[in-house]
Structure to design on (289 residues):
């Protein structure tokens, strides 16, 4: 990890290229720390109140890398009340590990029970106000600004707004950050028949905190399944390039949750992020000069 990445940049909570800290990778990363990885991501739900060897391993990494936290079960768009006890445990975790940012999914995943899937929120004005109010409450309890991630969808409830209009309205009313998922933009474009580059162009770049890039399964031309278990497809790398061209370079994390290969086989995709970030920085510096 570069010495520059150990300090918090002014624009973003972290910088460079990131990787999710998964148990499949943790021993290899401890024994041979990959220099191309600048920050790590964990799901707090998988680590809260964990002690013993696993707890010591997490502390090992959080003392050596900037840590970002990406939640799984907040259910920000769900009907059940927000669990403040759960939020306080999240806050304690974030404080204990000096987490740079906490993000969640702009979706819901339960109603007095976990659905283990991310369900779409109707794109309506009523839903904007409802979700934004819940995000503001979360931010008040956590005493920090959070980021919301645009999610992949396969069927959408009826609504009056486009995905772009809904996303921008929620972010503005809640005054929160955007956890940009490049793959989800591409997947939704293919699944719902719109140009994903049009949605990308509408992103409020000033709200980006960091980004995910991931692989998906191509069931058909008009059905893409967001698995996080495949290699990143060339068309998704192209979309990341376009995002860097439009918005400048932002922190980007390789998200791999399933079918996780050995670390040595995964790092070339992190290298792809590093290479693209370096190239776009050099191009921008050349334009300025």
């Amino acid at each position: 990890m570069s010495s520059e990445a150990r300090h918090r940049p002014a624009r973003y909570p972290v910088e460079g290229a990131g990787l999710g800290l998964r148990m499949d990778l943790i021993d290899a990363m401890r024994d041979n720390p990959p220099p191309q990885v600048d920050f790590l991501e964990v799901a707090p739900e998988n680590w809260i109140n964990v002690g013993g060897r696993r707890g010591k391993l997490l502390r090992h990494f959080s003392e050596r890398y900037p840590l970002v936290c990406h939640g799984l079960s907040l259910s920000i768009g769900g009907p059940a009340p927000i669990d403040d006890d759960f939020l306080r445990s999240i806050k304690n975790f974030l404080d204990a590990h000096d987490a740079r940012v906490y993000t969640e999914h702009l979706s819901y995943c339960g109603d007095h029970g976990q659905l283990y899937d991310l369900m779409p929120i109707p794109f309506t004005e009523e839903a904007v106000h409802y979700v934004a109010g819940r995000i503001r409450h979360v931010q008040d309890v956590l005493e920090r600004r959070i980021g919301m991630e645009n999610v992949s969808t396969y069927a959408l409830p009826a609504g009056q707004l486009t995905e772009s209009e809904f996303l921008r309205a929620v972010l503005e009313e809640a005054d929160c950050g955007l956890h940009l998922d490049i793959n989800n933009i591409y997947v939704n474009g293919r699944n719902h028949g719109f140009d994903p580059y049009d949605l990308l162009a509408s992103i409020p770049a000033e709200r980006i905190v960091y980004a995910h890039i991931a692989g998906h399964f191509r069931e058909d031309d008009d059905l893409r399944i967001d698995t996080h278990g495949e290699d990143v497809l060339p068309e998704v790398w192209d979309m990341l390039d376009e995002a860097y061209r439009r918005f400048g370079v932002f922190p980007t994390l390789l998200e791999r949750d399933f079918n996780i290969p050995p670390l040595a086989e995964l790092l070339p995709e992190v290298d792809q992020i590093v290479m693209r970030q370096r190239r776009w920085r050099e191009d921008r510096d050349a334009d300025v000069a």
In short: The radius of gyration is 18 Å. The first strand starts at residue 17 and ends at 20. Residues 109 and 116 are 6 Å apart (CA to CA).
